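Q: Got a minute? One more chain.
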Amino acid sequence: MIQRLLPFLTLAALFVGLCIASPHFLTSTNLSSVVRQTAVINIMALGMTIIIIAGGIDLSVGSILAMGGLLGTMAMEKGMPIPVGVAVGIFTGMFCGLTNGLLTTKLRINPFIVTLGTLGIVRGLALIISNGLPVHQIPAGFSFLGEGNLLQVPFVLWILLVCAVAMHVILEHTSLGRYAFAIGSNPEAALYAGINVGFYTTAVYTIGGMLTGLSGMIEASRLMTGQPTAGQGYELQAIAAVVIGGGSLRGGEGSVMGTLVGAFIMGLLANGSDLLGISPYLQQAIIGAVIILAVAFDELRKRRMI
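A: Always. Here it is, folded:
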């Protein structure tokens, strides 16, 4: 029980510690900034959650985010309405996720290798399409997606809540969710049980890609530019959020609430480091150390259960 509560206790302790350490932390402006900054990673991490639960991994999400944001903003630059541009970004992510799923299942290649390859392919294509230049000619109204408020609450928080509820319903109340847990726990047993492992694995990667495409449009909205270099290193943060929140890289374990807590822990670490003047380079080292500690803790827990 204590092990399941550990991420929540860590988040609470970090929140209280930052309240004491910095007088600028507990302000509406700063907390709103934390929500906006972590929304992109949070939504990506929700997609990563179901992928990791199913025993997979996606190292290409940072590149997919960049491609989705780039093509979505290019569509708007060419005169498409804002909703159409956002849809282009989401469908771009969905297509990339579908490709990852098909390569993994049809060619039977380890997802680590597949997504490591598509990480480079998608990033390279984004740079080729854009000639390495960002997209700037974007409608002013597009900024509402990442920076606007609805009922005095950041609009991205409403988007995050909708995505989180939808993912929770998928994991807990649909056959896709049940099969994802089954595939992640024991893919051979799932196959013998009559589960179409290839189909559901592909579906999981497609959902992850769709959420990453949405994150790409939110990131582009916050920056008001489509950057072909956006999202570098985001795959590390998305995976870290799932692992810190109790997900297992061996598959079969994970939850929406745990992932949200994990993402907010990293968001508070980054925000607190900025407020306290800690180097951003050290922040990267801290995230890496946290991943190792979380995985080590998970391994120790499983050994005690054996």
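A: The chain has a mean pLDDT of 90.
Q: Perfect, thanks.
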